[in-house]
Request: fold
Amino acid sequence: MDAAFLVELFEEALFLLLLLCAPVLTAALLTSVLVGWLSHYTKLSEPAIGSMARILAVLAGLLVFAPWIAQRVLGFTEKTWQLLQAVVQ
Reply:
């Protein structure tokens, strides 16, 4: 196990982190834009509406993408454990 191997593993972990956060953050971003647009045109400036809408969008995104997220995390974990076992032996 050399430094290049560890850098590659760390790089893959960071990419996986960004990939897994993207759907949930996109849902929050789109909800924020929509709520901001609606609040601008309705002149309703209640911060609780925007906060609750974002929270619900994030929760919905997590529920929808949870199986995909779990599959990707389990795949990365299995790969990491296999590499760790190969290094230990």
